[in-house]
Amino acid sequence: MLRIDCEKCTACGVCESSCAFAAITVPDDCAEVNDNCTLCGACVENCPEEALSIEVAEKRQQDNLDAFCGIMVFAECRHGLMAPVTYELLGIGRKLANQRQVPLSVVILGRNIGKYSDSLIAAGADTVVLVEHEGLAQFREDIFAKILARVIQEQKPEVVLAGATAIGRSVIPYVATLVGAGLTADCTRLEIRAEDGMLLQTRPAFGGNIMATIECPHTRPQMATVRPKVMAPAEPDPTRKGTVLQVEPLAEELRSAIKVLESVQSEEDQVNIQEVEALVSGGRGLASEKGFVLLRELASELNAAVAASRAAVDSGWIPYPHQVGQTGKTVSPKLYIACGISGAIQHAVGMQSAEVVVAINRDADAPIFNIATYGIVGDLYEVIPELVRQLREAKR
Question: What is the SS3 string spanning 21-78?
Answer without folding.
Answer: CCCEECCCCCCEECCCCCCCCHHHHHCCCCCEEECCCCCCCCCCHHHCCCEEEEECEE
